Write a sequence for this structure.
């Protein structure tokens, strides 16, 4: 009898405990897949840092509409197979309501079939066009498409009456995607591509490619890559005495690029930059200016380094999730619907206006054309 | 006007620039290749951690410049010393403890060691790429219609000094001769009273020092980061193989040839195949002339 009573009491206790979270609001579980280590760690590290910082900040203020956030971050090491395993773990074991990441296009593409099947919204921090084109029901992404940056450059070139271009792109995912977009966009804008050269991500000298470009009849050069390649290209351009304008991609829109290339060599280089890189140069009335300044200050205070565009992608994802919650999303499906309804959300990468046919939500205003003058950015005119 | 002139740049001018660019890149490969050759000549080991010594040279210099705020010459001296010590440590900790060394196990150990060194460098120094100032400015110098940077001259000079010293050391000094004896026949060298282990240690120290010097001198051009040693090491290895792993002129010619072919290939054929060209040459040489392009077949290397 005694034993039976004990069991009964235990059951009752278990019953009460498991019912408890229904009274207090259960926190929203956010899963994150970032390549914190490995070759793409320059993306994953600031992304994780940003998300952790923001979640802490919101929870300290009591959460969103009284609901706290619970963040689970997994490191994919830039490996697509690992990304899929960890995504499964996030959905099945951690029961997350929404996933932020992965950091790279390859990983994101690998994870998409899974989240579509499990109906968990995914906000990718990778830039590849194919992530949201064609639109997938549960998949969103925050970085602007490469072709927007390409279009921005070509519009600028058209205004300067430059009619032919030489391409110099890196042979990795970023470069080959950029190369396709550039060639595509050049055709649309009526600019002829007279040289189409590439270099390896670890190459240390690009004078051969640039000599060939020098011999072509190009009006300008567009280089598409991430550091350190574009910095070496910039130095080589100077070394060979090439006088035509050099455009770089948004992939090097950081002070690091100027530092690596050297102030003298980088003088006059023009590139489309996300607004975070130039927040102190923006007009006062720019809607993003205050948010960018605050983000940079908070990040610097917490991690002792400047905020980066990449961390900005995680910032965008976070803002979208909290916006969806503010509009009343509780379940994953409500979250998805509210994400799609986001309109004019001012964030780091730009001002997002989603729609059923647009799961990225950014336009040409996401970038600003800047020119490097005396080692600093200036809005290019 | 400059623009017009530039547009009329003829093919011969282009080829001149390809050659100059190729030679300057090739000199870098050669300098790194010599490090491979020295260890091979002293021990018959291919040390795949040689690329990491190149990386350490650049990273230690950066540490001296940025963190300790030392003047450049002092930072270089410190970097060479520290890298040489790292080479010695590497040998003591990984090569020497091996009971019965076989070529295969030694090669695998050096590959493992290189991954470890790279990992430590990443943890300590971070993942960023860093620039190091050029030794004597970065205003390009013209050679005919082609241009070159002052830093390239430093590289050429160091390469020449390295070959000369290397030749003198291995031909005329007792230690150098003893090291060659060890490579030719370990057992026999031991029997005539040469301290074989000491010679192995020496060759690691010398090649680490030379590797770091190479890393320091190329850093203003290639910049430096924890993973810069991988590709440079591989290209240096190619150069050494083309040159038949000779510590002298063969490797240098190998490096220059590699650099020029890469540059001409990128310029005249397609830049997409630049690295493919280098590695196809490496494979062809390993298949057809494993003793290298410039040396006669030698029985003791078989």
């Amino acid at each position: 009898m005694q034993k039976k009573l004990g069991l009964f009491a235990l059951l009752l206790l278990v019953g009460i405990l498991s019912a408890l979270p229904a009274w207090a609001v259960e926190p929203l579980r956010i899963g994150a897949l970032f390549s914190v280590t490995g070759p793409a760690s320059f993306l994953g590290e600031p992304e994780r840092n940003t998300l952790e910082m923001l979640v802490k900040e919101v929870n300290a203020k009591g959460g969103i509409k009284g609901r706290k956030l619970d963040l689970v971050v997994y490191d994919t090491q830039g490996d697509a197979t690992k990304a899929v395993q960890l995504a499964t773990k996030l959905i099945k074991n951690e029961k997350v309501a929404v996933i932020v990441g992965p950091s790279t296009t390859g990983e994101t593409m690998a994870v998409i079939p899974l989240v579509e099947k499990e109906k968990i919204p995914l906000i990718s921090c990778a830039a590849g066009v194919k992530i949201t084109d064609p639109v997938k029901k549960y998949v969103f992404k925050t970085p602007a498409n490469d072709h927007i940056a390409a279009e921005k450059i070509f519009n600028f070139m058209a205004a300067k009456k430059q009619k032919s271009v030489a391409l110099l792109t890196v042979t990795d995912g970023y470069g080959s995607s950029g190369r396709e977009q550039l060639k595509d966009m050049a055709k649309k804008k009526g600019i002829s591509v007279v040289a189409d050269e590439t270099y390896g991500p670890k190459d240390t000298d690009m004078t051969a490619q640039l000599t060939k470009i020098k011999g072509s009849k190009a009006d300008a050069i567009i280089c598409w890559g991430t550091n350190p390649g574009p910095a070496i290209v910039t130095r080589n351009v100077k070394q060979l005495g090439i006088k035509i304008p050099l455009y770089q991609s948004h992939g090097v829109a950081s002070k690091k690029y100027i530092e690596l290339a050297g102030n003298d060599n980088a003088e006059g280089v023009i590139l489309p930059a996300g607004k975070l890189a130039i927040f102190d140069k923006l007009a006062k009335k720019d809607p993003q200016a205050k948010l960018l300044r605050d983000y940079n200050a908070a990040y610097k205070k917490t991690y002792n380094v400047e905020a980066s565009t990449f961390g900005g992608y995680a910032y965008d994802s976070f803002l979208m999730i909290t916006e969806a919650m503010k509009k009343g999303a509780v379940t994953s499906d409500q979250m998805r619907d509210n994400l799609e309804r986001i309109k004019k959300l001012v964030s780091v990468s730009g001002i997002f206006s989603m729609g059923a046919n647009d799961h990225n939500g950014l336009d040409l205003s996401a970038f600003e054309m800047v020119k490097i003058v005396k080692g600093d950015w200036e809005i290019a005119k | 006007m400059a623009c017009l002139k530039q547009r009329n740049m003829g093919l011969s001018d282009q080829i001149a620039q390809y050659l100059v660019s190729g030679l300057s890149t090739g000199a870098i490969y050669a300098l790194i290749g010599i490090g491979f050759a020295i260890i091979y000549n002293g021990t018959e080991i291919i040390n795949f951690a040689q690329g990491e010594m190149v990386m350490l040279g650049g990273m230690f210099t950066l540490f001296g410049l940025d963190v300790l705020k030392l003047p450049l010459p002092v930072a270089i001296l410190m970097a060479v010393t520290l890298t040489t010590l790292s080479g010695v440590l590497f040998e003591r900790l990984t090569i020497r403890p091996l009971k019965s060394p076989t070529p295969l196990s030694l090669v695998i150990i050096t590959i493992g060691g290189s991954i470890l060194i790279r990992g430590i460098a990443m943890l300590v120094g971070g993942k960023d790429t860093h620039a190091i100032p050029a030794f004597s400015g970065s205003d390009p110098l013209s050679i005919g219609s082609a241009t070159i940077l002052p830093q390239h001259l430093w590289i050429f000079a160091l390469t020449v000094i390295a070959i000369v010293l290397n030749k003198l050391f291995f031909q005329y000094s007792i230690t150098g001769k003893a090291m060659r004896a060890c490579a030719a026949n370990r057992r026999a060298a031991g029997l005539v009273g040469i301290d074989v282990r000491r010679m192995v240690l020496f060759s690691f120290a010398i090649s680490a020092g030379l590797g770091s010097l190479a890393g320091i001198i190329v850093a203003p051009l290639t910049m430096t980061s924890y993973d810069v040693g991988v590709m440079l090491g591989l290209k240096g290895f190619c150069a050494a193989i083309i040159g038949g792993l000779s510590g002298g002129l063969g490797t240098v010619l190998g490096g220059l040839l590699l650099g020029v072919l890469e540059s001409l290939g990128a310029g005249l054929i397609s830049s997409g195949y630049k690295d493919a060209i280098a590695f196809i040459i490496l494979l062809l040489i390993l298949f057809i002339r494993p003793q290298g392009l410039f040396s006669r077949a030698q029985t003791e290397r078989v």
